[in-house]
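Re: that backbone. Tokens:
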């Protein structure tokens, strides 16, 4: 899976989640390893977008390898477990990272 295919999978996943009552949130995702890259997810006015850029004023940045990110996205890796075992690193607002991971987890 290329980086662009991964980004498209994220966009499709976000389309299935109701963000109506979610306050503004900007999460940068840093994918490490082969074919890694950076993209951000912005939740604003009840809608989520994902774009292949860094987000300067982000709520937090998540750093994870591609395999574990896909597991997280598919609900096969618990975000708290990923964080506590070092598979997921968070830079910034840990509460926002947890809120974002709950959104993903509860909608899978």
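Recovered sequence:
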């Amino acid at each position: 899976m290329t980086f662009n295919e991964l980004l498209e999978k994220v966009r499709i996943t976000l389309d299935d989640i109701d963000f109506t009552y979610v306050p503004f949130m900007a999460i940068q995702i840093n994918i490490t390893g082969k074919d890694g890259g950076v993209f951000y997810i912005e939740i604003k006015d009840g809608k989520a977008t994902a774009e292949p850029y860094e987000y300067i004023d982000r709520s937090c940045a998540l750093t994870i390898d591609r395999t574990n990110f896909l597991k997280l996205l598919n609900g096969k890796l618990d975000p708290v477990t990923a964080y506590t075992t070092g598979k997921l690193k968070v830079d910034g607002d840990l509460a926002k990272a947890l809120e974002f991971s709950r959104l993903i987890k509860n909608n899978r």
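The first strand starts at residue 25 and ends at 32. DSSP finds four helices and five strands in the chain.
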